[in-house]
């Protein structure tokens, strides 16, 4: 049988649905805004995931589980009970707002209060549903309500675990509690709700009878899935890997039973609109992602079990698709207006159904691949296309609502004229021809394929398009093929590093990346290229006919310098090597290739910089003000939680100079951390780049083997340390070659105040670093942007020396002070190799602090003074001074060659 949802009463259930669903529309708008401005949103991924899971999914569950409970038990509540239902929804949304505010403000008590409100709202909701179940007459579909009740009681468990996570845990405990938190909330609360709803909603969407054993299968699946969730939570908290995997396996068995029931129903009648297609696709992602989750726990343990690579398929593939599919069916029906109106609204909201579903799922599939497997431009184009297909639901929903409202008004007018009520809504008949769906699927596949082609066209070298057989000249091909196996190994080397190939043979290289932490490639001087190869991946490179020696190398920045060279030795018929030197090779960050001249002949992109010019219009001056200490108090200790997202993005570093930078959190020079002795710092490093990266905090004193290790694209790690000594400390990427990663932007400062540090009127932070540039490479990833040149670092002559990541920003946007104010300036020499002699022209320092000790004691009471603070690379300190006269005071690196390369700025002093 199928479930026909009863028509809403004009001033009853429909009115309640509109009011209770209002938060869903609001959170959907907030989510869209957050996606548009995500670069400026702290902990963007956390905010986005919780906007979806709490703002959209949990609100929807509270509304629709109540709706289905009443329909299935035939136990409609009186209108007076709606106030309590709305109160629960308001309590939930107040909790969501406080939770996000607690994160952004780092006030732990807000997080605790939010968890209490959210948990209380769902406990109240589950208790209310349980009361309706106990008082209702026996029903075949009571098992669905049992799913809702169990699910509602699981969310408070997940909320408690979320509070524990926010309190600050060591890395092993953090990973284990995170697995338990996700199991209780996503697999338990959301998963059980969806599983129970599909028992009746799925055949209703398909407009057919329920599969004969569906209710029995679903009844058996409930204890299996519930037991699986409980076992997973307990096993992860106890650190018992086998128990956690067993719990996930039990859950998957229960979920598979639900899928079998859905498949049996689908055999009766196939999906015919967006609702059916989207829900089916969402359930498939649910099953696949849960299986991948179990595999990760079993093979890699808890640390990488919650791999961020699963976020996209779980949130976008399962949660959002299932929600939008259900809403596509339910909204026209619950809005009502009569059969004709429901059919009209249904036609509107189901426009381009197959096209949208195909585009969404292909984009989710492609975007879920490890970053190293897809060129960055392909990922960017695919993500934009997928987001557009998802958010197409919003205008279609608005149009459908307008149709429904117009139909309801017309129906009301007709009833007023004739006195005859309009029949309630019935499930609309699918009127879309299969051929139209087939055309939509084809167009969807072609659209995604076009997006991939566009991404490849923007960066053809990334997929190995090459000019093969160069150098063969007039060599007579032998018709033979020499096939060799080459591997990229940990320690920056190819194994073997050279191969011998008879002249005239065609060479085929089977390349495998065995380096667990780095992406590599193999580029040959002939033009052949493997494209970037992720860990464990193998590719075949057809080099062409060999007529002379061919040089090869890894073109990832610095890898050739570290020893990743490869030689093809051409062997003549006499067995002797053919002696013919290839063209000179120049290596720069992100590009290496044959050139007719050395790197010295390439024009430095910074050679013509006007150091008096203002930064470009899009550039925003980095505030030099040292922000106050943040973090949250946990058991009397301040805990700082920071997420560092590695991104490879263009950065302006001087007027007219765009660098293809490597960044923490999207900006050349990472965020500044500020605390005091005894504070705990918990850093989550997320590698969203296309190669291996890492982070090394000088402020922490611990073995570097684990937290400072290089992680591959798509991976993350938690780096936790306690600040035990004061000073200003450097942090930077420690992946080889470190100098190149630092020059490309991967550095920042940690300020730990000395005990008893006096307050001052103004407190600034200036971090000096140098970079070494070469013209843009040949890839679309780089575009017209300059790149870091490792050879320039070795020669030791910077292109630019800057404060806080830009050569002229503080010339045109000076620091400010007033006469008589005490000004403290923290300074750090980030290197990678240049020292600093910090000087304020016209000023004298009465307090000097360097590397954890005072050179001039605080207060400025003694007769002595200082004119400069000298710092070797990775050293730091602060100076204090007062200005007795108004005016403009330059500050410089008094190694004046560096000042002339950009290490300067102004302090504007007013009366």
Automatic annotation (TrEMBL):
Keywords noted in UniProt: Copper, Membrane, Metal-binding, Oxidoreductase, Repeat, Transmembrane, Transmembrane helix
Enzyme Commission code(s) on record: 1.7.2.1
Start and end residues of each stretch annotated as Disordered: 587-627
Protein origin, superkingdom: Bacteria
Matches recorded under Pfam families: Cu-oxidase_3
Residues of the Plastocyanin-like domain: 647-755
Enzyme type, top EC level: oxidoreductase
Complex formation: Homotrimer.
Name of the protein in its database record: Copper-containing nitrite reductase
Annotated catalysed reactions: nitric oxide + Fe(III)-[cytochrome c] + H2O = Fe(II)-[cytochrome c] + nitrite + 2 H(+)
Family from the record: Belongs to the multicopper oxidase family.
Database matches in CDD domains: CuRO_1_CuNIR, CuRO_2_CuNIR
Transmembrane annotation, as ranges: 21-41, 47-68, 89-109, 115-133, 145-171, 183-205, 217-242, 248-267, 274-298, 310-332, 353-374, 380-401, 440-458
Essential cofactor(s): Cu(2+); Cu(+)
């Amino acid at each position: 049988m199928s479930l026909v949802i009863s028509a809403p009463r004009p001033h009853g259930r429909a009115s309640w649905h509109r009011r209770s669903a209002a938060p869903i529309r609001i959170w959907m708008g907030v989510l869209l805004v957050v996606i548009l401005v995500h670069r400026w949103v702290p902990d963007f991924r956390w905010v986005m995931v919780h906007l979806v899971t709490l703002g959209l999914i949990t609100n929807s569950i509270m509304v629709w589980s109540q709706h289905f409970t009443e329909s299935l038990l035939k136990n409609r509540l009186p209108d007076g009970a709606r106030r309590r239902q709305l109160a629960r929804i308001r309590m939930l949304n107040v909790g969501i707002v406080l939770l996000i505010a607690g994160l952004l403000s780092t006030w732990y008590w807000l997080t605790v209060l939010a968890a209490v409100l959210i948990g209380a709202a769902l406990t109240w909701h589950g208790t209310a549903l349980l009361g309706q179940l106990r008082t209702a007459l026996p029903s075949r579909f009571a098992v669905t309500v049992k799913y809702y009740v169990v699910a509602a009681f699981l969310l408070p468990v997940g909320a408690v675990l979320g509070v524990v996570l926010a309190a600050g845990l060591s890395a092993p405990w953090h990973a284990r509690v995170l697995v338990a938190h996700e199991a209780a909330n996503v697999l338990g609360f959301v998963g059980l709700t969806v599983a129970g709803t599909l028992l009746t909603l799925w055949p209703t969407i398909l407009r057919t009878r329920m599969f004969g054993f569906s209710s029995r299968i679903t009844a058996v699946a409930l204890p299996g899935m519930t037991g699986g969730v409980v076992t997973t939570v307990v096993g992860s908290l106890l650190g018992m890997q086998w128990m956690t995997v067993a719990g996930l396996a039990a859950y998957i068995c229960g979920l598979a039973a639900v899928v079998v029931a859905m498949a049996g129903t689908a055999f009766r009648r196939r999906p015919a609109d967006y609702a059916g297609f989207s829900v089916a696709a969402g359930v498939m992602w649910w099953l696949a992602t849960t299986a991948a989750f179990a595999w990760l726990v079993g093979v890699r343990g808890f640390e990488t079990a919650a791999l961020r690579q699963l976020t996209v398929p779980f949130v976008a593939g399962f949660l959002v698709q299932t929600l939008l599919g259900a809403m596509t069916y339910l909204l026209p029906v619950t809005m009502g207006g009569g059969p004709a109106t429901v059919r009209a609204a249904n036609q509107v909201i189901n426009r381009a159904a197959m096209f949208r579903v195909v585009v969404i799922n292909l984009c989710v599939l492609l975007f879920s691949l490890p970053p190293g497997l897809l060129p960055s431009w392909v990922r960017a184009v695919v993500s934009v296309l997928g987001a557009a297909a998802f958010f197409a639901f919003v205008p279609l929903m608005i149009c459908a609502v307008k149709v429904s409202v117009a139909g309801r008004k017309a129906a009301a007018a007709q009833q007023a004229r004739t006195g005859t009520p309009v029949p309630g809504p019935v499930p609309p008949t699918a009127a879309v021809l299969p051929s139209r769906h087939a055309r939509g699927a084809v167009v969807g596949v072609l659209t995604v394929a076009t997006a991939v082609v566009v991404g490849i066209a923007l960066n053809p070298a990334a997929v190995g398009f090459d000019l093969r057989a160069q150098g063969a000249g007039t060599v007579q091909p032998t018709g033979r093929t020499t096939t060799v196996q080459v591997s990229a190994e940990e320690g920056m080397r190819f194994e073997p590093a050279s191969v011998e190939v008879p002249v005239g043979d065609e060479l085929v290289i089977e390349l495998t990346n065995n380096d667990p932490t780095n992406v590599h490639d193999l580029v040959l001087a002939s033009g052949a290229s493997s494209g970037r190869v992720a860990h464990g991946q193998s590719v075949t490179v057809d080099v062409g006919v060999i007529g002379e020696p061919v040089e090869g190398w890894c073109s990832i920045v610095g890898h050739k310098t570290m020893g990743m060279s490869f030689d093809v030795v051409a062997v003549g018929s006499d067995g002797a090597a053919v002696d013919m030197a290839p063209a000179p090779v120049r290596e720069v960050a992100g590009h290496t290739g044959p050139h007719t001249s050395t790197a010295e002949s390439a024009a430095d992109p910074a050679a013509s910089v006007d150091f008096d010019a203002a930064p470009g219009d899009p550039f925003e001056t980095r505030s030099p003000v040292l922000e106050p200490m943040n973090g949250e108090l946990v058991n009397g200790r301040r805990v700082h939680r920071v997420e560092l997202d590695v991104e490879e993005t263009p950065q302006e570093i001087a007027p007219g100079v765009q660098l293809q930078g490597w960044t923490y959190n999207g900006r050349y020079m990472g965020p500044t951390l500020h605390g005091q002795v005894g504070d705990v710092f918990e850093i989550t490093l997320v590698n969203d780049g296309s190669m291996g990266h890492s982070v090394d905090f000088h402020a922490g004193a611990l073995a570097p083997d684990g937290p400072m290790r290089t992680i591959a694209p798509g991976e993350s790690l938690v780096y936790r340390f306690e600040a035990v000594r004061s000073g200003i400390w450097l942090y930077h990427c420690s992946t080889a070659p470190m100098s190149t990663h630092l020059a490309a932007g991967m550095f920042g400062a940690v300020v730990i105040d000395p005990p008893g540090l006096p307050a001052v009127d103004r407190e600034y932070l200036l971090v000096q670093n140098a970079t070494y540039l070469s013209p843009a490479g040949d890839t679309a990833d780089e575009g017209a942007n300059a790149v870091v040149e490792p050879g320039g670092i070795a020669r030791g002559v910077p292109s630019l020396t800057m404060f806080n990541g830009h050569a002229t920003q503080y010339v045109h946007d000076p620091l400010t002070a007033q006469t008589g104010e005490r000004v403290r300036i923290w300074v750090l020499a980030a290197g990678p190799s240049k020292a600093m002699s910090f000087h304020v022209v016209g000023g004298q320092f009465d307090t000097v602090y360097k590397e954890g000790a005072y050179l001039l004691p605080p207060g400025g009471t003694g007769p002595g003074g200082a004119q400069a603070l000298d710092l070797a690379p990775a050293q730091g300190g602060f100076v204090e001074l007062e200005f007795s006269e108004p005016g403009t005071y330059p500050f410089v690196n008094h190694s004046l060659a560096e000042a002339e390369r950009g290490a300067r700025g102004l302090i504007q002093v007013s009366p």
